[in-house]
Amino acid sequence: MAGEDWDEMVLVGRVARAHGNRGQVIVNPETDFPAERFKEGREVLTRLAGELRRLAISDVRFQRGRPIVAFAGVETMDDAEALAGAELKVPASELGELPQGTYYHHELIGCEVRRADGATIGRVKAVEGPMTGSLLVVDTHRGEVLIPLAGEICVRVDPAARVIVIEPPEGLLELNERGRWRDES
Question: What is the pTM of this model?
Fold first, then answer.
């Protein structure tokens, strides 16, 4: 993991809070593969006070879909509390291949979204939800719009070209505008 740039790494989770008094933490996973990403022997990186820190997972169990993780060297509740809110990342090179037609969130963020007729809608700002049922959060000139990442709507997804072409059903974009109650002047 040495030599990797923090901004180029992929977010796989965030430490929610300390759990118990033995240095364990509850992690909010930011991956569709939490059981694979958070297992004994794996490592993640975090940045505390501007310094990169490698964390080796020494034990893990799942409760209500969230991993409760023990990291080597994090022995006390105070140690664990110091990690609260920390992002947990891995180098992109450690990500496995996905089935065709599925994408990692970081591959889609920043892609330009266009209609099939070429009209630009906006740029993907975030992706919400799991691999099945994901929503693209698209930043448009009118605010955010949620677009389902479904083959019937997203007819061309090309992360390498940084573009997603959509054929939305009539009214979808207007219906899924966030903050429609705001003054549009």
Answer: 0.67
